[in-house]
Structures are given as C-alpha cells and as structure tokens.
Amino acid sequence: MADDVLELADKLWRGDIDIVEIHPVGGYMGGVAEVATGVSFVPSFANVSAIATDDGLVLVDTGSSFVAGAVHEALRGWSAQRLNTAIYSHGHIDHVFGVGVWEEESAIQGWPAPLVVAHDAVPARFDRYIVTAGYNEIINQRQFGVPGLRWPTEYRYPDRTYAQQLALDVGGVALELHHARGETDDHTWTWLAGPRVLCCGDLFIWASPNAGNPQKVQRYPREWAIALREMIGLEPEVLLPGHGFPVVGAGRVRQALTDTADLLDSLVDQTIDLMNAGARLDEVLHTVAVPAHLADRPYLRPVYDEPEFVVRNVWRLYGGWWDGNPASLKPAPESALAAELAGLAGGAGVLADRALTLVESPAGGAEGAVALRLAGHLAELAALAAPTDRAVHRARAEVFARLSKAATSTMAKGVFTWTARDSEGRAGHAD
Question: Is the pLDDT assigned to residue 429 strictly greater than 70?
C-alpha cells in the first residue's frame, strides 16, 4: 500500500493523473504508507499521520467516526503500540472522531488513557457546534449531497491546549506544535525536526485552498499564507496534508507551499486594492483572477473550494457584509422583487423559459459562463414568483442541474445539486 500511495502522489504531481479523477477530499482508501522511519500515513477522509515513539504512538488527527475503526485496524498492522497522544490539527469533525476506538482499546488492555492535545480555540468550536447543530446538519447535507447526514452533539474535548507554540517530547520524539489561522481559527501544524516531516492539517489539501467556503464561518487567507511561509523556512522533506497525498522531496514541498501561499497572497492583494479604489463586491468578484502560472498547478485546482469564494471571504473580513449596492442595503423581500420582475416580463413562465434558453446557449468561454449564471438568476426569480408552479420548478431543476454539471468545486456542485433536487420534488408534489 505504501508504494501505491506514494506512486499515486507522484503521478498526481507530474500530471499523469488528473486530480479531478481522485478527489483530494475523498473517501477512505485503506492501508498504511511509511513515509519516513517511524512515521506512517493513512489516506482517509481525513488523513491520519502516526509517529512511533518509545512510549507509544502519536497520532496527528484521528479521522472521522465513519472510518475510525478501519483506521485503527490499518495502523494495528503497522504497530502494536498503545496510543500515547492524539493531536487535533483543528476541530472539524472529520479529523477528531477517532479517539474513542483507541480509548476503548486502552481500557480493555489496562493501558493509560491517551492524551488529546489541541489549540485553545478547539473547545470553543465544539461548544459552537453543539449550539448550531441543526444549522451545521443542513449545510453539510447540502455541501456533500448527503441528506441523511446527522451532526454530532458530543465531542472528545482536548485534555491539554496551547496558545501559540507547544513543544512536546513523547517517548524521546520531539514534536513542535504551531498555531495558525487559515481554514479555521484553531489550526495546528506539527513539525518533526528529526525526520523533517511536516503535518500541516488542512493548510494544504491538494486543491485550491479552502479559504472561501460559502456556508461556513470566516477563514483567514493572509494569515494562512504567513503560516505556509513559516513552514517553508523549516525546509521540510515530507509534507503530510490533512487531505490528499504525501508530498515527498524538499523541492516539491517547497514548491507546493510557496505556490499555495502565493495564490492566497495574490487573491488578498487584488481584493484589497479594488476595495481601496472603491469597487463594489460585484466588480471585485469579476475582476480578481488567479495568476496564470498557478492556474494549472495540479495541487491548486478548484475541485473543492474556489478562488472566487476566497475573494468573498476577504471582503467579509475587511469590509463587512454589505456588497456596496445601495439597493441591497435594505432590500425588498426576494419574493416581492421576483413577483415584480415576473410581472414586467409577462409572467414567471417567461423567466423560466428564458433561463432554459440560456442554458442551451451554444456560446463558450466567458460568454457561455455568464449565460449560465444569468440562467440561475432567472430560474430562481421564476420560482420565487411562482412557488407552486410545477413547470417553473421543472425549469429550475434543469437549470441548476446544468449549473452543477458545469461547476468544478464541491461547494458549488453541492448547492446547485441540492437546488435541482428541491425543485424536482416540488415539480412532482406542488399543488
């Protein structure tokens, strides 16, 4: 399995395999890849890294509840040591729900219970998840297309937290924990100076950085880039990401981290320059562009998040929620606006028909992309103006199915597919 994982990582890096074929934020692959002496990697959703010490294992992340048993079994084929310490790279639920399996084993074997270490902000994240369980359940059902997903309300809180940096010595192995704000406010990246291995959590995921997710809380692209440049200064030789595959070789690691930092810095700089010039959000969204030399990097493709969404998060961070359009400051109800426009157009059906015409447009490139976006606007307006019209909902379902097919990112596909399915249901059951 080790050869398979590392060979796959090499092929992805060289472009022999398109990253779209093997989604970096994918499912459980199984197996263990030993990437350095005493350091192993389990490709999963999310990945788990294991370090052998004289006093038991250290895990960086523990996986999700769905694969915790499989991860434990895979690692048991590599080492029989007890779990000494688990480090959460951050508090997202796909990274923190594997501890229970190891605790149960320790109790049965009469071993000391494992210690869980994380950043100071992780407990507050868990507290927020409990309060907003319903909301998180809905948005994650929509994002990942899993209607039956249930959001947890019980968490394994860390036993020990830290603020900025923490040096740990576990069984003679030195680990350095560093805090960074990036995809989350509670991120930890872990450095093993001996083997020069960097466990970076989701600060690198073999995809365009998840710094814009439209349904989640604030992300921090500038601080993210700063953290990546700090990592580069350590000259790591192996990079173990929270999602995706290992990056092996000092040159490749340096390039991956540098390119990711350059992309984030460019998006932030372009956005702030336009904000300082007085641009509205609309102009910013349609002006900021990914630097040409980074657009085709196999590890920066917009297959999960998108640079356009990162721009929105930069705007939210520095400029607040208002987009600069005076009509949107105190808007009319969406349904009232839709009814007015439908009336002017000659009815909701006219809007829906025009939306279908636009998605059938043969135009390619930028013109075709704009036509698809216009179709989305018109289909949604039609549905708001005539919420029980089956024909309108059939059109809305078709339009958003087309938008989903054209989208590259999990974020966009999730929202568009959810919308299409909503209208499919309404078209079949509306009065």
Answer: no
| Structure token pair of residue 313 | 């998060």
Residue 332, pLDDT score: 98
Q: What is the pLDDT of residue 425?
A: 96
User: What domains appear along the chain, each with residue ranges and CATH number?
Assistant: 2-264 (3.60.15.30), 267-319 (no CATH), 332-429 (1.25.40.880)
Find, among 381, 389, 111, 323, the residue nearest to 399 by Cα.
381
> Is residue 175 a contact partner of residue 146, using CB atoms and an 8 Å limit?
no
Tokens of 385: 């103006």
Helix/strand/coil percentages in the chain, nearest 5: 45, 15, 40
342-370: average pLDDT? 92
Token pair for residue 427?
């078209």
pLDDT at residue 2 in the model: 57
Closest by CA position to 8, among listed 28, 25, 33, 27: 33
146-159: burial string, b at 16+ Cβ within 10 Å, e else = eeeeebeeebbebe
Number of C-beta neighbours around residue 378 at 10 A: 28
- For 87, counting Cβ atoms within 10 Å of its Cβ (0-12 exposed, 13-18 middle, 19+ buried), the class is buried
CB-based contact 299:207 (threshold 8 Å): yes
- Rounded-to-integer distance, Cα 388 and Cα 263, Å: 45
Name the 3-class secondary structure at 238: strand
- In this prediction, residue 431 carries a pLDDT of 42
